[in-house]
């Protein structure tokens, strides 16, 4: 393909310097196609436009998604976790509830499997020059299931509700320090501005499906979601039975192409094993979230397809940096060097993960600096570090972890590896609820342990990992990591919104965290969805949502 | 008999009151708080505090308990914290479900266990006895989730004869409900068969060796009559105690079976309420089980006195 300079100039004419900088990076090879598309979508550039730029730059069009021959009108049956308590998009943060309200609700934009932001109820978005104000243009002609048109007032009310501490909003932990009640302003019926507390280069992700509570509800919403189920989505509620299941039917007033299935049926389960049995018995078509270790029987079963989505979900290990043996960074590094990440990925996670490099920067983030060397197992060096730290004769510590997913097995592997370097690690595995406790220091084994493992869900951008887990004032800083240089770098990363600057800051953070090693990010595991052969068009997200708009029987 | 019943009723009331105190105050030892359980470990602390205040769980414990027991005594089970709906809407259907499953399991396992025990005792130290005793013991030792999964794999996944979920469709009749309860009842039958058969066997052996049995045989009564009227009647006394003592387990202790078969019984309701520190739900559920247990024990005592006239003559002591 040859470059069409005239077309490229035409396309760049109305763009901002940040957007042009991204195109420069793509044209001269510093930014690959994947990162170009992801970051372009973050800046509010549409996928067709990005495709045109790619063509003009001589790289060919953006890849199109192959459409299977899907028969409309099917009933798709899904096994999913039971919602824990009442379903309320403002309060709920459990996977069961998230899956339910996402079936009828929609977001301003959707974070897709490749971290590409796609327009949904917003058609476009733009930052101001310093990234403190983001302006979203809303789609016209969108109707709530109750009949009213979705307009700016609904978006303002939804976001205000979520940012208001008086509402016990689950999204408050994401918005805190970024967006306050009153910061969302209506410009006209179809334009909304978000005035942020400070510059934020990744803000659109925080009002996307990535922040699962942000489905747009009517301005009049009063907490009665289980009665109204009022959203704008392509399915509307048919029936909901607590702890049993729910069914949804096609919304014929949907603003976009109508959903292919006539009906979707969700069956609630308390555990993964019965879900696997139900799929094997032919009583459901899909298991929305399949843990690799528990679902190993399905991974190689030819009767089922496994949809594997790269995610940034991880089982981070923290080490207390202020007291005990882990005060010394050399001890923390030694622990990190004892881990065999290849075995974790291939053995523990059955190949459904990628190795981490002891920072939240997973390789799928466009801003991750790929030039930072990957940490690998080096027992000899680990022993030397322990010797230099004065632990030549060995040391003892306790690893506290929740009974969840593959964490107990992961803890046992850590125990056996650190034994080789002279660290006698005792395991304290406990119920997940007991582990998190009150989730405040002094009342939480998670935040009080000298060494612990916590399970972290996927995030489309690393902001929450960088701030809440690792900054000096982070509420989830179980490692008690206090580093002013890091705090400044994290702030700079969050404020930057051109890819080169983000990557530069990311590189500095990655190197600093490798040096300090307050936490071990050993692997980032894929989100797995098991689907019966012949069922196609299923679109899960790494957040645990499931889009069945285009699903059917092939 | 009436004074016996009155005394038992009074004991039961005191027991249930103590139960409410134990559940409420020991439950406070559980880690976490209601707001945190609803919003999750990663919710903002401010949001948790606001929710706890809205729910009233930041008040002193005695005030909370007093408010709850006051409403309960007026017939109001209260509102569930985590579901934000009346507790009665959950507890009563769950009790119905649990009773149905327990009834199906009882109807199968009690006659089967007693018959097994009788056959084993009549064939003491023969291969039949060994097969029943060892088989029953082995079955009881298999955890419910293991036997449950095996049953599901055989009858649900491979043969596809039975539904693997116990959640029957809306409007299902009694026979359909029974069909859906066959698989979940199987692990319970495995667990209980051994106990009941062993108790019956032991009682039978003792009764067969007694003077009154010898007298009955020497009187020339037919063997069948000796077994039915003299041996079995006495041999069943300890078995009744075992069966009654399993009521609490069958009504509220079937968490594993309920989870495996997606059954909406009291076991999973209690587990989720304890996890979420949903005390109105927890208290009501535990009280219901306590009440069921008290009634079952009372029925066992009445059966005892019917089978053993000496108890009646002693005034129910």
Automatic annotation (TrEMBL), chain A:
Residue ranges of domain Solute-binding protein family in the record: 117-473
Keywords (A to Z) from UniProt: Signal
InterPro entries, A to Z: Peptide/Ni-bd, SBP_5, SBP_5_CS, SBP_5_dom, TAT_signal
Keyword Chaperone: no
The keyword Signal is assigned to this record: yes
Pfam families xrefs: SBP_bac_5
Subcellular location: Periplasm
UniProt family annotation: Belongs to the bacterial solute-binding protein 5 family.
Protein name: Extracellular solute-binding protein family 5
UniProt organism field: Mesorhizobium ventifaucium
TrEMBL record, chain B:
Keywords: Cell membrane, Membrane, Transmembrane, Transmembrane helix, Transport
Residue ranges annotated for the ABC transmembrane type-1 domain, each copy included: 95-304
Cited PROSITE patterns: ABC_TM1
Membrane-spanning intervals of the chain: 101-122, 134-158, 178-197, 235-261, 281-304
Topological category with respect to the lipid bilayer: Multi-pass membrane protein
Entry annotated with the keyword Cell membrane: yes
A Pfam family of this chain: BPD_transp_1
Localization terms from the record: Cell membrane
Entries under SUPFAM superfamilies matching the protein: MetI-like (SSF161098)
InterPro entries: BPD_transp_1_N, MetI-like, MetI-like_sf
Entry's family note: Belongs to the binding-protein-dependent transport system permease family.
Protein name: ABC-type dipeptide/oligopeptide/nickel transport system, permease component
Organism this protein belongs to: Mesorhizobium ventifaucium
High-level lineage: Bacteria, Pseudomonadati, Pseudomonadota, Alphaproteobacteria, Hyphomicrobiales
């Amino acid at each position: 393909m040859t470059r069409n300079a005239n077309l490229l100039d035409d396309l760049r004419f109305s763009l901002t310097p940040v957007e042009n900088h991204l195109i420069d990076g793509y044209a001269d090879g510093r930014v690959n196609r994947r990162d170009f598309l992801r970051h372009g979508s973050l800046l509010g550039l549409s996928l067709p436009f990005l495709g045109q730029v790619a063509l003009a730059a001589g790289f060919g069009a953006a890849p199109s998604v192959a459409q299977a021959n899907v028969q409309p009108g099917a009933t798709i049956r899904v096994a999913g976790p039971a919602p824990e308590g009442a379903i309320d998009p403002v309060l709920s943060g459990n996977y069961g509830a998230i899956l339910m309200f996402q079936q009828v609700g929609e977001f301003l934009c959707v974070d897709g499997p490749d971290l590409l932001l796609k327009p949904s109820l917003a058609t476009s978005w733009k930052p101001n020059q310093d990234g403190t104000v983001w302006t979203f243009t809303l789609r016209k002609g969108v109707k709530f299931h109750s009949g009213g048109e979705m307009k700016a007032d609904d978006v303002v009310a939804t976001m205000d509700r979520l940012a208001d501490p008086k509402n016990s909003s689950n999204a408050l932990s994401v918005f805190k320090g970024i967006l306050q009640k009153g910061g969302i302003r209506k410009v006209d019926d179809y334009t909304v501005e978000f005035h942020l507390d400070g510059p934020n280069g990744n803000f659109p992700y925080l009002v996307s499906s990535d922040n699962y509570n942000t489905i747009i509800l009517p301005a009049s919403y009063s907490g009665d979601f289980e009665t109204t189920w009022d959203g704008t989505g392509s399915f509307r509620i048919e029936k909901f039975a607590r702890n049993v299941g729910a069914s949804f039917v096609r919304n014929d007033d949907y603003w976009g192409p109508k959903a292919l299935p006539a009906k979707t049926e969700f069956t609630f389960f308390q555990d993964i094993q019965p879900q696997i049995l139900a799929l094997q018995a032919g009583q459901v078509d899909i298991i929305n979230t399949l843990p690799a270790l528990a679902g190993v029987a399905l991974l190689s079963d030819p009767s089922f397809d496994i949809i594997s989505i790269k995610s940034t979900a991880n089982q981070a290990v923290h080490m207390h940096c202020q007291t005990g043996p882990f005060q010394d960074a050399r001890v923390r590094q030694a622990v990190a060097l004892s881990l065999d990440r290849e075995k974790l990925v291939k053995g523990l996670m059955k190949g459904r993960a990628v190795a981490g490099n002891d920072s939240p920067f997973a390789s799928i983030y466009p801003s991750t600096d790929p030039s930072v060397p990957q940490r690998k197992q080096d027992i000899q060096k680990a022993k030397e570090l322990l010797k230099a730290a004065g632990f030549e004769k060995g040391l003892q510590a306790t690893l506290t972890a929740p009974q969840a997913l593959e964490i107990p097995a992961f803890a046992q592997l850590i125990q056996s590896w650190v034994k080789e370097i002279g660290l006698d690690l005792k395991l304290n595995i406990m119920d997940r609820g007991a582990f998190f406790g009150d989730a405040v220091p002094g009342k939480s084994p998670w935040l009080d342990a000298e060494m612990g493992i916590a399970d972290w869900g996927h995030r489309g951008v690393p902001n929450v990992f960088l701030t809440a887990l690792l900054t000096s004032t982070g509420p989830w800083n179980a490692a008690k990591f206090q580093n002013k240089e890091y705090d400044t770098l994290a702030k700079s990363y969050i404020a930057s919104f051109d890819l080169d600057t983000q990557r530069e800051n990311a590189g500095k953070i990655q190197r600093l965290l490798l040096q300090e090693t307050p936490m071990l990010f050993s692997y980032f595991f894929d989100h797995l969805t098991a689907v019966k052969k012949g069922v196609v068009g299923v679109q899960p997200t790494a957040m645990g949502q499931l889009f069945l708009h285009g699903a059917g029987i092939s | 008999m009436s004074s016996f019943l009155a005394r038992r009723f009074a004991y039961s009331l005191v027991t249930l009151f103590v139960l409410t105190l134990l559940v409420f105050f020991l439950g406070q030892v559980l880690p976490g708080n209601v707001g945190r359980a609803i919003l999750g470990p990663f919710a903002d602390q401010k949001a948790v505090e606001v929710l706890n205040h809205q729910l009233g769980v930041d008040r002193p414990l005695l005030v909370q308990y007093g408010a709850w027991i006051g409403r309960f005594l007026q017939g109001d089970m209260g509102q569930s914290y985590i579901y934000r709906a009346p507790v009665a809407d959950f507890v009563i259907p769950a009790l119905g479900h649990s009773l149905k499953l327990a009834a199906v399991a009882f109807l199968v396992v009690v006659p089967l266990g007693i018959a097994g025990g009788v056959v084993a005792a009549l064939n003491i130290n023969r291969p039949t006895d060994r097969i029943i005793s060892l088989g029953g013991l082995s079955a009881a030792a298999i955890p419910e989730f293991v036997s449950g999964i095996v049953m599901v794999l055989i009858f649900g996944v491979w043969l596809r004869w039975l539904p693997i979920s116990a959640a029957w469709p809306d409007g299902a009749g009694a026979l359909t409900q029974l069909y859906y309860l066959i698989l979940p009842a199987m692990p319970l039958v495995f667990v209980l068969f051994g106990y009941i058969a062993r108790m019956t066997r032991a009682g039978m052996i003792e009764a067969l060796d007694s003077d009154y049995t010898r007298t009955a045989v020497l009187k020339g009564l037919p063997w069948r009559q000796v077994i039915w009227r003299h041996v079995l009647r006495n041999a069943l006394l300890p078995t009744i105690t075992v069966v009654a003592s399993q009521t609490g387990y069958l009504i509220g202790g079937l968490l594993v079976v309920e989870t495996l078969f997606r059954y909406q019984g009291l076991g999973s309701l209690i587990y989720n309420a304890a996890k979420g520190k949903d005390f109105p739900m927890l208290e009501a559920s535990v009280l219901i089980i306590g009440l069921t247990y008290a009634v079952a024990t009372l029925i066992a005592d009445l059966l005892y006195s019917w089978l053993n006239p000496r108890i009646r003559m002693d005034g129910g002591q």
